Amino acid sequence: MSGFAKQLYLAVLCTVLVLIVAGCSISQKTHEEEIRARASMAFDGLKAEEGGEKSTAYSNEDKQSRYPDPIEVEKNRSLQVKQGKKPDWTDKESELYPASMYLTGVGYGPDRQSAEDNARSEIAKIFYSDIHSRTSTFQEYLKTTSESKGKVTERFDIEEITRVSTQKVLSGVRIAQVFQQVKPDNVFYALAVLDRKQSAMILKYKIQELDIEIRRLIHNAEKEEDKLSKIKILKEAIQQYILREAYDAELRIVNKSGKGVSSDTGFNEIKNRLTTILLRDFLIFLSVKGDRAAEIHEALVEGLNRQGFSISEDFNKASVVVRGNVEIRPIEFGAQEWKYVRWRVYFDLIDQKGGAIFGSIGKTGREGHINLSQAEDRAVFKVKKILTADIAKDITKYIFSQQVK
């Protein structure tokens, strides 16, 4: 080979090698972009669900939950049902879908559909048991010094939050193989698989999004001067944090190493901020008029304090004003030896900042006893109990039910 030919050969060879390397790089980049695109698509419905729409997910108790989309169903129908020798995955690890790369679930039943549903449910069990174990601890974290104040956790629907996250992960489950056993009984077996690497990438992407959102909410809460608005923002931050932790728990499951992504924001930091505002800065002004007003006012102060709220005697410092009237009147009713009173209460709950009435309590009732004084005492006792519970309930609902704008 001449010197010129050798040079030409080397030039061509180098060009080919460069193209191969570039092709691999483009292929890898394209693959990552495709996965990121699928990640975005996988969470398209998340904002709607977080906004209050009912979500569903697989669970062991509810086999009629959401199944794959029509495209996935069509793919499953085209999946050939194998017969003959029983495949390895029915009773041990699959060679084609090893545990190092896939989460797998095997289901069986009298027909193909039930076998596939059961296979998906087997994978769902892995998530639900672990997620429930991890997120249930938030129920304890959200409690404050008062036992009754722990009822605030009812405003954080942890069950629904984790259902949203797990549903998204399970959308990546697919049926890889179906086998039909003919003898001695007719039984269908299905193998459901979830790609660990792809699921991990999707979950990391979502966790990063939530971390950014949590930091944004905390920053907004720090700048917000209005106490009620601050509480709503921190409530939203807690919800996002719980959702983030659910995704992280799922990441630990799909990640073979069992590692997740640590958060640079501590849950206790958010919770303590919220607790401080509720117990110290969020003040309620009480105005009670009518029969036995002073006694009922004192009882409401004591009752609302037990519920975790603070009462202010300064109207201008209050975030919420509770204003109402109590009326207790003797009535003729029943046997002459018993005395009866009719009681009526009507209270408004007012947002001090905007002046809007966000709750109204109107109650009436009848109490009797052997003398009028004791009948009135029973009426006052009933009024105290009803007002404390209803006022606390309405204030809590108002604080925690509204969305951050």
N- and C-termini, Cα separation: 77 Å
Cα Rg: 31 Å
Number of helices: 11
Count of β-strands: 9
Return residue spans where pLDDT drops below 50 for at least 5 consecutive residues. 8-74, 143-155
The helicity comes to 40-55%
Name the structural class.
alpha/beta
- SSE string: HHHEEHHHEEHHHEHEEEEH
Determine the mean pLDDT: 76
Structural commentary:
The chain has 405 residues and is α/β, with parallel strands linked by helices. It folds into 2 domains: 52-277, no CATH class; 282-401, 2-Layer Sandwich (Double Stranded RNA Binding Domain). It is 52% helix and 19% strand. It has 11 helices and 9 strands. Strands 6-5-7-8-9 form a 5-stranded mixed sheet. It has a 4-stranded mixed sheet with strand order 1-3-4-2. A hairpin with a 5-residue loop joins strand 3 and strand 4 (187-195).
Structure at a glance:
The chain is an alpha/beta fold and about 400 residues long. Helix content is about 50%, strand content about 20%.
Furnish the topology, listing elements before pairings.
Elements: H1 3-42, H2 46-50, H3 70-78, E1 81-82, E2 102-109, H4 112-135, H5 137-141, H6 158-170, E3 174-181, E4 187-195, H7 196-223, H8 227-254, H9 267-281, E5 283-290, H10 293-306, E6 310-311, E7 320-331, E8 339-351, E9 357-369, H11 372-401
Parallel strand pairs: 1-3, 5-6, 5-7
Antiparallel strand pairs: 2-4, 3-4, 7-8, 8-9
Helix pairs in contact: 1-7, 4-6, 4-8, 6-8, 7-8, 8-9, 10-11
Key traits:
405 residues; five-stranded mixed sheet; Double Stranded RNA Binding Domain
